Request: fold
Amino acid sequence: LQLQASGGGLVQPGGSLRLSCAASGFTLDYYTIGWFRQAPGREREWVSGRRGSGGTTYYADSVKGRFTMSRSGAENTVYLQMNNLTPEDTAVYYCAATSRRHVILSLLGDGAQYEYWGHGTQVTVSS
Reply:
């Protein structure tokens, strides 16, 4: 079971990027998915998540209104569309998954809930 994150890069402030997280060995539709990021010298931060049981996608306040998580069942891939990027968004971004479909909302941002992690993809926002 693997997750492969991609799509990072260098972008100017105000720009956009779309990250992809492709799964192999399991079907993402039935898994709780989370996006996390870690900036140099800072702790890992939860960005967005959606429970495998369906329903709402949740976002950290720092990205709400700018980032959108979506998924393609056909491609078994989850995306993170990031708009209006700022230098504060610079970080390594990770996707993660857990087979626990009913993760308690208060724990959706807890990395310990996720057993599968992709290698990170670097996002750098700079002029």
